[in-house]
Amino acid sequence: MKKDFYSAEDFQFSQFKKGDNRAFEFFFNKYFNDIVGFSQKFIGDRDKAKSVSQDAFIKLWTNRDKIIKIGGIRSFLFTSAKTDCLNLLRHKKVKRRYESLKLQEKERLLDMEILDSLKFDSMTFSELEELVEKSIAEMPEKCRQIFMKKRMENKKNKEIAEEMDITLKAVEANMTRALKFLKLRLASYIPYILILIFLTLF
């Protein structure tokens, strides 16, 4: 019975890749409520959560040629919804900066939900955090300072440049260097897509 189920889903995936509307509806019905519930946890508005979820499926359809494996559908949907949720949360944060700590906590919980949705089980989220923290500590000093100000203190590049008395280009170059450093350190432990998901919020 299990084999027949997977065979049927594999067929739907192959049809989806060919642009079959019925196959798209199959995956829409399979994942839509999950994406809505996932989004609603963090933006607190069901109507907006539905909008976010609908946008995720539109993006999935227009990018279906980039989905290589059937598991990529779920990964793509959660990643897209996560991005839009964070954009909404960050927009609110601009209006109310004092909520930044709450935002960071929501982002952390959001990461945990995404990693769980992708069946990330090679290491725990806390272990991943420890690995990232250790990698940050090993960064060149200036890279580390700029990374911390950007990602932990939510400062803009211009603010960092003025505070550290360096050029805007120097800030951008060091952020690029810091991210490349982390990606290289983490690549041996987790898939690249999870590195991107994690580093967008860390």
Feature tags:
Arc Repressor Mutant, subunit A; RNA_pol_sigma-70-like; DNA binding; disordered N terminus; RNA polymerase sigma-70 factor; 2 domains; mainly alpha; 202 residues; 78% helix; sigma factor activity; RNA_pol_sigma70_r2
Question: How would you sum up this structure, described in words?
Answer:
It contains 10 helices and no strands. It has 202 residues and is an all-alpha fold. It has 2 domains: 1-119, no CATH class; 122-202, Winged helix-like DNA-binding domain superfamily/Winged helix DNA-binding domain (Arc Repressor Mutant, subunit A). It is elongated. The chain starts with a helix and ends with a helix.
Q: Summarize the helix and strand pattern as letters.
A: HHHHHHHHHH
Oligomer: single chain
Strand content: under 5%
Please, how many domains?
Answer: 2
Structural class: mainly alpha
N/C terminus separation: 42 Å
Average pLDDT works out at 78
The helix content is over 70%
Protein name: RNA polymerase sigma-70 factor
Domain RNA polymerase sigma factor 70 region 4 type: 131-182
Domain RNA polymerase sigma-70 region: 28-93
Keywords: Membrane, Sigma factor, Transcription, Transcription regulation, Transmembrane, Transmembrane helix
In short:
This protein has 202 residues and is mainly alpha-helical. It has helices at residues 2-17, 21-43, 46-62, 71-95, 100-117, 125-137, 141-151, 157-164, 168-186, 192-199.
Give the SSE map.
Elements: H1 2-17, H2 21-43, H3 46-62, H4 71-95, H5 100-117, H6 125-137, H7 141-151, H8 157-164, H9 168-186, H10 192-199
Helix pairs in contact: 1-2, 2-3, 2-4, 3-4, 4-5, 6-9, 7-9, 8-9, 9-10
